Amino acid sequence: MNRLDKYRGIIPAFYACYDDNGRISPDRVKALASHLAGKGVKGLYVGGSSGECIYQSVDERKMVLECVMEAVRGRLTIIAHVACNNTQDSMELARHAQEQGVDAIAAIPPIYFHLPPFAIAKYWNDISSAAPDTDFIIYNIPQLAGVALDTALLKEMRKNPRVIGVKNSSMPVQDIQMFLDEGGENMIVFNGPDEQLLSGLAAGASGGIGGTYAVMPELYMRIYELFGKGEIEKARVIQNDCCRIIYHMCSAKANLYAVLKEILKGRGIDIGTVRSPLPGLEAEDYKIAAACAEEISAAVKKYCEKAG
């Protein structure tokens, strides 16, 4: 078995779980982690964009990871996003993640100041040095970070033997092929944009890490399964329906994660709402969330339940 096989498959990005007063809820973190494990996903990506990491303290992020590990340790592949906007805190989270026994850590580049490539490489390598026995995954999300990974920077990072892959959330599918070409053997790339999972798999992605996976994991796992069987047309039909559902979600005034959490609530998993300054649901958004939940249920019934 290839040591990278544990990263192949569908890995939902884990949502921030708050109590009714907006504090991290350990019980709700564990409930969501257990719920997703029960769905049969490959792993969880903890502490990233979907986890509202930039609005949480270092201690809160440690608490979330500890609760996830308590709930699903040994059952799922766990990737902990540890980047903060300073090196010291990022290294602290990396040390903590290794102590918790995660499979990999991940990091975006520092945001706000546009650093030169050599400074970004030093930032990532410093983080990796704090977890020297743990795999490292570069998180490329230029539309939010303001900095894009290129092949020259990836080549520099591959000098670090712990760097095993990229979570690629840039929109061009071509980037996946370019990163795999540059990375060489023992290199993986995750597809990031949920709307193009199938395209990313076709370009060589080992699987996907996505923000809407947690509300409809069955559909994404089915796409992954059908792709593996070479049944591309069937997979394409499901991918298109996933895209339509996402577009409907994004029609709400609220932040997307507020909509996703409301959908989960309708499925019996209450993890609160989003943290300010992210906008929560307005009156008309509840109807959108309910309609999206119905669309998901219908799609799961149509594409997954018949498949057994």
Keywords:
308 residues, alpha/beta, eight-stranded parallel sheet, 12 helices, 8 strands, 48% helix, globular
Structure description:
By secondary structure, the chain is an alpha/beta fold. It has helices at residues 26-39, 58-72, 87-100, 117-129, 142-145, 151-157, 174-183, 197-202, 217-229, 232-249, 256-266, 283-305, and strands at 9-12, 43-46, 77-81, 104-107, 135-140, 163-168, 188-191, 207-210. An eight-stranded parallel β-sheet has the order 1-8-7-6-5-4-3-2. Helix 2 runs parallel beside helix 3 and helix 10 packs antiparallel against helix 12. The model has no long low-confidence stretch (mean pLDDT 96).
Shape: globular
- With helices defined by DSSP (H or I, 4 residues minimum), what is the helix count? 12
What is the strand content? 5-15%
How is the main sheet built? 8 strands, parallel
Q: What is the structural class?
A: alpha/beta
What series of H and E elements makes up the topology?
EHEHEHEHEHHEHEHEHHHH
Quick summary of this structure?
With 308 residues, the protein is α/β, with parallel strands linked by helices. Helix content is 48%, strand content 12%.
Could you give the topology of this structure?
Blueprint: E1 9-12, H1 26-39, E2 43-46, H2 58-72, E3 77-81, H3 87-100, E4 104-107, H4 117-129, E5 135-140, H5 142-145, H6 151-157, E6 163-168, H7 174-183, E7 188-191, H8 197-202, E8 207-210, H9 217-229, H10 232-249, H11 256-266, H12 283-305
Parallel strand pairs: 1-8, 2-3, 3-4, 4-5, 5-6, 6-7, 7-8
